[in-house]
Description:
The protein is mainly alpha-helical. The chain has helices at 17-36, 40-61, 65-83, 89-92, 118-135, 147-172.
Amino acid sequence: MSEGDSIGESVHGKPSVIYRFFSRLGQIYQSWLDKSTPYTAVRWVVTLGLSFIYMIRVYLLQGWYIVTYALGIYHLNLFIAFLSPKVDPSLMEDSDDGPSLPTRQNEEFRPFIRRLPEFKFWHSATKGILVAMACTFFEAFNVPVFWPILVMYFIMLFCITMKRQIKHMIKYRYIPFTHGKRKYKGKEDVGKTFAS
Length: 196
């Protein structure tokens, strides 16, 4: 292997200008992602705003319905992964070599761990909207389709998929949402204070 054959290196062994530029761009992007991590509500409001802008754009242009359908399928896939446990209990049913969700009252409590964490769900959903928005600038993606059929098919697909997911939740007794930290009540203080 000669000098300069590795990726991103110039002939003199130093990183090339293009490699340094994209490396720095990646660092800035990751820095902004890291800073946005604690602001869950703000992140989702921005994503919903982008989604609303995308829907207005598709409505005004009267096209790109197949791109919108693909975006809907992608978001449905992300949502199902968000609702699913990291370790599928149906696969763990036959073997006893690993953790499983508690199915009886006397079993140990194990928290619900998602297959797709919330941050990755948000990040992928936002990237999907931005890619779909970019596709609306190219006429090649404007495939003529009868959009009411796509809407009906998406609704049917959503209902069938969610029905299957809800049955899975009921069968293996897990709820993918938590409503905050559990609060335990201690013994009430029945003693009286003495005034001196």
